Amino acid sequence: MHLIPTQEEVVALLRDTGALREGHFQYTTGIHSNEYLQVPLALRYSQHQRMLSVALSRLLRQNSEIRAILNEASIVVPATGGLPVAYGVCEAARAKQVYWAERYHDHEPLHFRQYVNPSPGEQVILVDDILRTGSKLSEMKKLLEANGAQVIALAVVIYQPTPNTHDFGSLPFYYLAKLEASYYADAAHCELCKRGAPLEKVWV
Ligand SMILES: [Zn+2]
């Protein structure tokens, strides 16, 4: 495998580790899809976690403006699922620190743990295992900016856009592979339901 794996190599790794599954899935939002992706299933294996994180850090380093401030930058994740990637990127890029936000209940806003506070002017690279709708990353970005931090880039292992994916404008955006799944708003609009394919409910 090269220093930065190709899209095909990343997809093969996801399939081999069971992280990428084909079938007929219903997400908690009610959306139906022909694919289910759970990147942490691939990140269980430290050699994959390391390879994917190093590759992402190399993409970030290719941007000379980002490279120039990497050792002062914070790597921030909007959920614990992205932590293996965040620590891998931080180590490979020799960034300053890693922290994350979380929520205890579905409808409460993201928050940092007590005493974890971004500093005014702090430069942040937002990292996650996947960008799907981008709603959590967008909320994370707003929370950081409300605390005076400056988000300078966004880096994810997998970019799997949906029809409602948040637009991050001109923010530099890096990913290792882009996956296109078919999404259906609900059972009534789902081609797979029409064919009678067995449905599996997923909870993340
Ligand atoms: Zn369906």
Quick structural summary:
By secondary structure, the chain is of the alpha/beta class. It has helices spanning 7-16, 40-43, 46-61, 64-69, 83-93, 135-146, 191-194, and strands at residues 20-26, 32-37, 74-77, 97-102, 111-112, 123-131, 150-159, 173-178, 183-184, 200-201. A six-stranded mixed sheet has the order 5-4-3-6-7-8. A four-stranded mixed sheet has the order 9-2-1-10.
Radius of gyration, rounded?
17 Å
Shape: globular
**What ions, cofactors and ligands are bound?**
zinc ion
Strand element count: 10
Query: How much of the sequence is in beta strands?
Result: 25-35%
Low-confidence stretches: none
Q: How many strands, what sense, and barrel or not for the largest sheet?
A: 6 strands, mixed
**How many helices?**
7
Q: What structural category do the secondary elements indicate?
A: alpha/beta
CA-to-CA gap between the ends?
Answer: 30 Å
**In sequence order, what are the helices and strands, one letter per element?**
HEEHHHEHEEEHEEEHE
Strands of the largest sheet, in order across it? 5-4-3-6-7-8
Helical percent range?
A: 25-40%
Mean pLDDT: 94
Provide tags for this entry:
204 residues, alpha/beta, six-stranded mixed sheet, 7 helices, 26% strand, globular, binds zinc ion
Task: Explain the layout of strands and helices.
Blueprint: H1 7-16, E1 20-26, E2 32-37, H2 40-43, H3 46-61, H4 64-69, E3 74-77, H5 83-93, E4 97-102, E5 111-112, E6 123-131, H6 135-146, E7 150-159, E8 173-178, E9 183-184, H7 191-194, E10 200-201
The structure holds zinc ion (ZN).
Zinc ion (ZN) is lined by residues 24, 32, 184, 187, 190, 192-193, 199.
